[in-house]
Each structure stands twice: as C-alpha cells, then as structure tokens.
Recover the amino acids of this structure.
C-alpha cells in the first residue's frame, strides 16, 4: 500500500511514493508511475496500479479512500471507472462456439442481409 504520509515534495521536485511489488518488495517511485482509478459509486472498487521497474510486473491493488486521497494529493493521475465496468450482466456466458457461429454467419452476406431485414 502506498504511504500517503510520505512528505509532499518541494516545488519543482516530482512527488515520490513508497509502494510495494509482491515480487520485489518495497520501493519508491515517482507519482507519474501510478494510475489511480476511482469508482464514485462503489469506493471498494477503486484501485491503483503501477509497473514494477525491476520485474516489469503490473501491480494492481485496491485503493481505500485514504489511499485515493493520498495519491491524488501527490499528483497521481486519476481516471474514473468506465460505466461499462458497472453494468449488470444477465444471461448465459458467450462461448467460443457462439463466436464461431457468429463468424460463420457474418461470412455469408445473404444471411446477414436476411437477419437485418427481419430485425427491422
Ligand atoms: Zn517487481
């Protein structure tokens, strides 16, 4: 978890944030190494991520409100969670067979035209 108590940098210096890679351990990275994604409707879905400079692994961790506040105060860019991520999904899961059937259907222009005319 990043340490939001890390002192703010003096003006002109990039903010540095203490964080931890599960493989490489603790390190300090500049604020522009992080991406913070905030979910306004469900704070439990907010997260931050960074690419570890030692192992190149993408590290993603849940961001509590305290972490969101600390990171954004240190200049970490903040993105909102896309609305698609909050959509409710019902019905059966799309399978590889479904995709193959769709691919075959789309390869036949007459079938596509028939489907479009019957849909209207
Ligand atoms: Zn690492």
């Amino acid at each position: 978890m990043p340490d939001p108590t890390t002192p703010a940098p003096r003006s002109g210096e990039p903010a540095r944030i203490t964080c931890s890679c599960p493989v490489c351990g603790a390190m300090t990275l500049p604020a522009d190494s992080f991406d913070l994604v905030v979910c306004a409707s469900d704070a439990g879905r907010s997260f931050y991520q960074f690419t570890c400079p030692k192992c190149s692994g993408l590290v993603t961790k849940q961001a509590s409100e305290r972490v969101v506040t600390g990171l954004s105060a240190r200049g970490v860019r903040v993105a909102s969670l896309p609305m698609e991520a909050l959509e409710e999904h019902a019905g059966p899961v799309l399978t590889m067979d479904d995709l193959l059937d769709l691919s075959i259907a789309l390869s036949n222009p007459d079938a596509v035209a028939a489907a479009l005319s019957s849909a209207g």
